[in-house]
Design goal:
The chain is mainly alpha-helical. Helices cover about 35% and strands about 5% of the residues.
């Protein structure tokens, strides 16, 4: 395997050693919920409320960017 060194500008964000290309197109974004322990748990109603809150934040963010 031939490895060729590259110069990566200071401040470049990488993921698994690959530079990340910035995009404002939220359809290309990958969303991930991170929690600790049982922070994302509960009964049916509690889970629906949490998911609704997450979806509302995503929708508000998208509408804000389009204006």
């Amino acid at each position: 395997m031939n490895i060729v060194p590259i110069i990566v500008p200071k401040g470049t964000v990488t993921y698994m050693d690959v530079p990340v290309i910035c995009t404002n197109d939220k359809d290309k974004w990958k969303y991930e919920l991170k929690t600790t322990g049982t922070a994302f748990s509960g009964n049916y109603d509690a889970m629906l409320e949490m998911l609704d809150n997450v979806i509302n934040c995503m929708v508000k963010s998208r509408v804000k960017d389009k204006t």
